[in-house]
Prior knowledge:
Blueprint: E1 8-10, E2 16-18, H1 28-62, E3 68-69, E4 81-84, H2 86-92, H3 96-105, E5 112-113, E6 120-123, H4 131-153, H5 170-174, H6 184-188, H7 210-213
Helix pairs in contact: 1-4
Amino acid sequence: MAAAAPVSARSRSGRTWPISCPYGSAGILPISWAYIRMMGAEGLRRATGVAILSANYVARRLDPHFPVLYTGRDGLVAHECILDLRPLANQTGITAEDVAKRLIDYGFHAPTMSFPVAGTLMVEPTESEDLAELDRFCDAMIAIRQEIAKVASGEFDAQDNPLKNAPHTASMLVSADWAHPYERAVGGYPMPGDRRGKYWPPVRRIDQAYGDRNLMCACPPPEAFED
Length: 227
């Protein structure tokens, strides 16, 4: 969906600026207010408990496969768990970015990447995720860990493998020019199950940092708001 053009105001000097600038992200406050009012004190308490429980469930399931950073007393985390991919990156060349992109093939939007620690994934399940969805995510991460093990053992090529090539688009898989050493199904359908709900990303990887370093504004120029 294309972003709407910002509503502008004109100063006495004739310059224009988006009227929301002095107020920041104005939508944050009413959304938060509405959520609090709808949930109520008991609902907020339950949502907090479920979110913390979910994060600890994910941390405990994945800890044998990915080190979990910043655990507290009894190995517990708060409402999020940070998975450390740095040791695996040093050993195999598979980075947190590769895992994030591979998760798309498994049907997941990647968690927060490289924050607050570079080379990590921060998993922050909300109170709305049920146990089946948490298990589906954990199963995907464990399967990806097994793929990383195949890179380490040499079963997968160090550069031409399902993680480095992720995500796999539909056009990529149906192309007659398939030169990768692994099967198409490994790239596009890594998990067993019903394929009818498969999400296909429209594009593969784009230069990750280019957009951050080369700002391209899609908004109308200031001249468009002049009389």
